Amino acid sequence: MLEPSHNDELPPIPGKRYFTIGEVSDLCLVKPHVLRYWEQEFPQLAPVKRRGNRRYYQHQDVLMIRQIRSLLYEEGYTIGGARQRLSGDSAKDDAMQSKQLIKQMLAELEELAKVLKR
């Protein structure tokens, strides 16, 4: 389990449109069965389902999963408490998602700068 100070250990989110459950599992450091369970518990989390009932997550879904993970694993919320926090505090959630998106973009820009320096 990561501590709040080690949240930067999560890998950067690639600039793809859709992610499989295995990719999201690796990006968020959460097992696929946990992601499927969270889909039942959090109405905000609803990946696109395509042929064969395969799940495809979008960028905002990955950010939501990271936020849920942070609430449960780092801040110590219960499932019910995290659900209530996500549904009742949308302005704060938007700010948290924006902050995560900015961190992600900075990491990608730093990576790009390294490539360009070569």
From TrEMBL:
<dbReference type="GO" id="GO:0003677">
    <property type="term" value="F:DNA binding"/>
</dbReference>
<dbReference type="Pfam" id="PF13411">
    <property type="entry name" value="MerR_1"/>
</dbReference>
<dbReference type="InterPro" id="IPR009061">
    <property type="entry name" value="DNA-bd_dom_put_sf"/>
</dbReference>
<keyword id="KW-0238">DNA-binding</keyword>
<dbReference type="InterPro" id="IPR000551">
    <property type="entry name" value="MerR-type_HTH_dom"/>
</dbReference>
<feature type="domain" description="HTH merR-type">
    <location>
        <begin position="18"/>
        <end position="88"/>
    </location>
</feature>
<dbReference type="GO" id="GO:0003700">
    <property type="term" value="F:DNA-binding transcription factor activity"/>
</dbReference>
<dbReference type="InterPro" id="IPR047057">
    <property type="entry name" value="MerR_fam"/>
</dbReference>
<protein>
    <submittedName>
        <fullName>MerR family transcriptional regulator</fullName>
    </submittedName>
</protein>
